[in-house]
UniProtKB/TrEMBL annotation:
It is found in: Membrane. One of its GO terms (biological process) is sesquiterpene biosynthetic process. GO terms for molecular function: heme binding; iron ion binding; monooxygenase activity; oxidoreductase activity, acting on paired donors, with incorporation or reduction of molecular oxygen. CDD domains: CYP71-like (cd11072). Heme binds at C437. Keywords: Heme, Iron, Membrane, Metal-binding, Monooxygenase, Oxidoreductase, Transmembrane, Transmembrane helix. GO terms for cellular component: membrane. This is Cytochrome P450. The chain crosses the membrane at residues 6-28. Its main location: membrane. Its cofactor is heme. It comes from Lactuca sativa. It comes from the Eukaryota.
Amino acid sequence: MDIISFFPSWILPTTLLLFFTSIFMYALRMRRSSIRLPPGPKRLPIIGNLHQVLGKEGVHQTLWNLSQTYGPAMLLHFGAQPFLVISSTEMATEVLKTHDEKLCTRPYSKATKLLSFNYMDVAFSPHSDHWRDMRKVVVSEFLGAKRIRLYKNMMEIEMEAVIRSISSHSLNTTVNLEDILLSLVYDVVGKVAFGNSYRGKTFNGRTLKDIVEEVQVMGGASFSFIFPTFGWILDELTGWNRRLQKCYTDFDGFLQMILDDHHDTKTSGHVNDFVDDCMSRLTTEEMKALMMNVLEGAVDTTTITMVWAMSELVKNPRVMEKLQNEIRRCVGRKSKVDESDITKMPYLKMVVKETLRLHPPAAFLMGRECVSQCRIGGYDVLPGMKVMVTAWGLGRDPRIWKENAEEFYPERFENIKADIGGKNFEMIPFGGGRRACPGNNMATSTVEFTISNLLYFFNWETPAGLKKEDLDMKENGFPFLRRTTPLCLVPTKHNWED
Ligand code: HEM
Ligand SMILES: *[C@@H]1O[C@H](CO)[C@@H](O)[C@H](O)[C@H]1NC(C)=O
Ligand SMILES: *[C@@H]1O[C@H](CO)[C@@H](O)[C@H](O)[C@H]1NC(C)=O
């Protein structure tokens, strides 16, 4: 009997298996320990770095301050989720351009999945062929030449109504510009996309505006998002799940109501809207998901930009006067501002750009997630890490905008060629790369058109007793940074002296 047959037959293969497994584990450990994660503040067990942001006034400001200590590629944990926070032009270029392909998916969350009708949309969808197809639909059908023409016509009509309504106010009355501009954008987008503004309609007692706001809130973080193992219990106990379900039911109901209206009516002379043109080739879920993207992506962002522009103009009378001179000189004495007048207003373009620099509505773009390992700023970024890029911080970085970075000074764009189309990344109010905002041009021309009208017809003052330089500019909010106080101003009709 030789020694080999003494051992049971399984011993040799098992030993070999153990041997190779341990070598493999060792190699894996070596590789892991060679991973260099981005630096970041120390984290506590379970909550990670949550205590550093929760309850603080503005997360955008807090994270920007932290990045001054830990660097422009910084790693934080919110609960169990790792977040890479990007705070410089160089790092943003690496994320949005160099490694765009590896960082261009969106994080999964229960809320975004439900509210995008199972990721049938563009904005929240993971990177996929379906996302690409849906993005093409939005670009050609909502942002294509035909719809833009309709949009501009509608904008002129609604703008005239706004001018008439403001003119009808008696002297020295304060108007809430935010309300006026939000209604304007709702009316225009609603009519172009759905054939009707739906402003007076309700579903389950809620208006479209209420529901759109609720969707924004629910799209934010929940316990299950930051604590994937046990968070669902907290979401159940806190009532968050029920609130999400209600939000979904109302939203779905409202959108179904809009679709039903399109099945019923086809009167002659009817101008085809976005829904008319897409309904036949998209599923009901795809249709609703795109309607959601238009409502959530186009309305508040555009309005917020207009409101910040007006706030900065009132606070900076020098800029206001210079811009008003340009507008009134280019338009001349007419009854309305034409599209072609606006092409002759370079200062207006700089004012809108300067507004988006200091007040990008989406302070952190939209969340991204790493799909395959890559290096950002020399650090390793691993699959599953979430990526936040601060548009707000980049717009105030003194290394780019010099010592007057905090000042509203549109003339700076005479010397710095910062484009906002996502080619270079000094300022990124619309993001960049594959996931960049497709509505960039529509948004800026809407803001330019509105501001030029408001300034052509009226002069704007702060209410009696409030000095212009004391106008409150506090900002906060999720997902969009907006004024914390309403913008109430006193318009007076401009008198041409002759
Ligand atoms: C001032 C107005 C606007 C601002 C500041 C804005 C900003 C943004 C930002 C920061 C993103 C994320 C980009 C990224 O992740 O890199 C985004 C995405 C998007 N925006 Fe806008 N946006 C505006 C207006 C519009 C308009 C008018 C539309 C009209 C359809 C629109 C549709 C979208 C869509 C569909 C996406 C998702 C793109 C994707 O994930 O592929 N936005 N926007
Ligand atoms: C951030 O830093 C600035 C300047 O150092 C300071 O004034 C501000 O209070 C800080 N904000 C937060 C939220 O930490
Ligand atoms: C409007 O307000 C100004 C300044 O507060 C005042 O001088 C003027 O008399 C007011 N006009 C009317 C019609 O109330």
